Amino acid sequence: MIKKLNNKKSELNKGILHLSDLKIVKNIQSEQFYFELRKNYKIALFKTALSISKNIRNLAKKTNINYFNLWDCIKRAPISLSNLRKLSDFLTDKGFKDFSLENIEKNIRYIKGGFTNEKVYKPKFPINLITKNGMRFLAHLYHDGGIGKENRQPNYTNKSFKECREFLKDAKIIFGNFFRSVKLRKDGTYSVELPTVIGDILISFGYTPGDKTKQNPPTFPFLNKIKNKELVSGFLAKAFNDDGSIGKRQIILEQSSLIKNGIRKPSNVLLLDKYFLEELGIKVFGPKLTNIYPNRYGKCTKYVINVYSKQQFKIFNNHIKLINHKRKKLEENIL
């Protein structure tokens, strides 16, 4: 068990994730998170630990870390999250607060997954999603994006290269630097996939991986507490760029969800979109059921929310800056 001295109070309810919030999921050979610390900091950490225990074998016993794993960590390999917590707990219990998890998260060179060599350099712990970049990123993830259930890679697909490029840029600002690029698909759309370790971080936040239409998972609870209009507007701009359409007399946003146990209900993402629109003072109609159709999982419902009237169009346009072709169409309709 990690002692209280080693833990910063969780801020997940504020959309902020610390190193201490990451969840450890093990299999026989590996974990989901491995860390390489900055060189001088890593040297200081092990030098301090060995000065207490006298040698590696004693340190392994005192921390309950496998001797060979510990030797690898000291000499050449990244440290797993569980072992990093054990070392931090051991040192902070002896009074060395410089090696608390709160301080360790400021001295990480890179983070990687246990099943892949792909790294995220200089990870931005604590990771904050309640920022302009974070809200735009989440809007894309909830609408034209997602996280694979098996590979756990966050992904995003759109007809616009610019939207995909911005999704990639926002991800690097939020999580840290990594090597991925936007790709052109055979159907003429663009797509981008992020490293698996970022998916695992988002799952630690509480994101449910897999097909959103099938599962209709809940959205992050902290999103329902946001009152900052700039953040809300940024989220909605990306939501409407992905799934919205501009008609002559109405603005439409639609989402689908699977019918389960005979129960029809709109997607939780669409309900979040409606909540944000109303936070901006925009009158919203719906969600309204417009279609029932089959897919590979069963029957799905399509629900829409609508914004009507010239006055509401103006409020919408003042707050939500859409992609160029949709913005121009909206302005023409207002005129």
Number of strands: 14
Largest sheet: 4 strands, antiparallel
Integer-rounded radius of gyration: 23 Å
Helix content: 40-55%
Overall pLDDT, averaged? Answer: 94
* Approximate shape: elongated
Q: Give the strand line-up of the largest sheet.
A: 3-2-4-5
Strand content range: 15-25%
Encode the helix/strand succession as letters. EEHHHEHHEEEHEEHEEHHHEEHEEHH
- Which blocks of ≥5 consecutive residues have pLDDT under 50? 1-7
Give the count of structural domains: 3
Oligomer status = single chain
For the termini, the CA-CA separation is 64 Å
Class per helix and strand makeup: alpha+beta
Number of helices: 13
Describe this structure in words.
Helix content is 41%, strand content 20%. It has 335 residues and is α+β, with helices and mostly antiparallel strands. It has 3 domains: 4-121, no CATH class; 129-210, Homing endonucleases (Endonuclease I-creI); 224-334, Endonuclease I-creI (Roll). The strands form 4 sheets. It has a 4-stranded antiparallel β-sheet. The chain has a 4-stranded antiparallel β-sheet with strand order 7-8-10-9. The longest helix has 15 residues, at 39-53. It is elongated and about 75 Å long. The N and C termini lie far apart (64 Å).
